[in-house]
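Q: What would this complex look like in 3D?
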Amino acid sequence: MAMKTTLAGAGLALLAQASFVLPASAGTPLLSGTYLLHERMLCQASESVDQSGKKFQFTATSPGRIGLAIGTITFTPASQGAANGKVKALTTNADGGLVLSTVNGVTTGTPMVLGEGNKLSGTFKIDGNTVQIKFKGQDAVSFDSVFGQLDANSIAGELDAVAVNSGADCSTNLRLDRQ
Amino acid sequence: MTISASRALLTAICACAPALGATALPIFSGPYSMNIETLCPASQTVDANGNSLKLTSTSPGEIAHTTGTLNFFASGTSGNFKTSSAVTDGSAILSTINGKATGTPFSLTDEQNFGTYRMGDSSLILTFDKQQPLTFQAVYGGVDSSNIAHRANLLIVSDATTPACATHILLSVQAAGR
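A: Here is my prediction, written as structure tokens for the whole assembly.
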């Protein structure tokens, strides 16, 4: 019994010591500074075929979307060590429909085009493994995230994240690397 | 302004020139891991007139993923490269219309290729052997004290096919400690 008490006491002492030497990296991962951005968004296409008697009707409901982006994204925490703050991005995007349908001469969906110098700004919030990014004029997107390469201040050097939009028709994959 | 004053100004400008070296273009050097994704939309035409519906797959689209290495043999903004990679490639939509199949299932192949490259501020031109140059939009990161970029993200929309395709590339330096 005495041995157990001693061990317990030693354990508590060790824990107390450990709490003093825990590195900051053991805390919640943070995002701060500028990162290279690599993003892919795929949205499902949808179409319907209706038969009424012998008559067929084909409707291209949605062409879906392919959206690829590269660029930089800068996180500015509200204060030192904060898990929320402002975000700015400068991106080049490739965007177009996933399925281009021409029904009776009318085309649904747009071909792939490259757009350069897209500027976005908004806010971000980190809660556990969720990173929420809300750009002005867009819906907030909540990414399930994995943080990597944390530094001594718990700032992540890498982020891999996925999200499904509120309409449940788009899947996004995001990769960030500290610049 | 007199000629001598102009010369003095030019001399002053030239004296400042070395400072520009601090913001010199990053360079590539050695082997990088390479991940590529190519996505091409599918396209179709539908003619529905009264009792008939005719669907024609004009393009099955394409989905391709590549993982491998890209080795830059020079240490500069231009030079030669070699790639070694595994590639999955298949159609976005497989259609069978009145028994006629369009599109191909995924296949996995190993590829090696080589060519030349030229870096710009926000672009990278890759010219594969016996092919037309491809100009990618580029962002560089992880630049070390030797001005070597450890990472690069690239993007291109190519209209070599109809509909046009988008290709996305991630490069990350392979050597440990770099």
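A: To summarize the key features: The interface with chain B takes residues 35-38, 40, 42, 49, 54-58, 60, 66, 68-72, 92-94, 96-104, 109, 111-114, 116, 175, 177-179 of chain A (CB under 8 Å). Chain A has one helix and twelve strands.
Q: Very helpful, thank you.
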